[in-house]
Amino acid sequence: QVQLVESGGGLVQTGGSLRLSCEASGSIFRRNVMGWYRQAPGKQRDLVAALTSGGSTNYADSVKGRFTISRDNAKNMIYLQMNSLKPEDTAVYYCNAQVPTIPPYNYWGRGTQVTVSS
After folding, report:
1. In this predicted model, what pLDDT tens digit does every residue of 50-109 receive, in sequence order?
2. The pLDDT of residue 21
3. FRET label pair with 38: which of 58, 67, 102, 115, CA 20 to 30 Å apart?
């Protein structure tokens, strides 16, 4: 029911940069943890970065120091700035809104492909 729309994926060489964007509904954006996940072929969908409404962040160890998650409250958008990209970063990246229940409930975007070539 909630439409999360990602953009910004593409093909980039090793060491390059991309910025992903995700637009969400205002109510979902304000009330829930927002984040980015990624899934490579044959692999599980893993957390890349998360951002709470209070500004707390969480990153996967593999992207710390290279990726930055941020938000624009006025536009109801979140971003993922990806620098120093590696071939291992190749995956479909999904925008996520997580209701902080136990267990959590997740809303997903349709995904955007990121491909990093050598």
Report:
1. 998 788 999 999 999 999 999 998 999 999 999 999 999 999 999 999 988 899 889 999
2. 98
3. 102
> Average pLDDT in the 14-24 region?
97
d(CA 26, CA 59): 24
**Joined tokens for residue 69:** 């998650």
Structure tokens at 13: 């060489």
Query: Closest Cα partner for 39 from 103, 104, 96?
Result: 96
Q: Which of 118, 34, 39 is nearest to 80 (CA)?
A: 34
CA 98 to chain CA centroid, Å, is 12
Distance separating alpha carbons of residues 67 and 95, to the nearest angstrom? 15
Amino acid at position 66, single letter: R
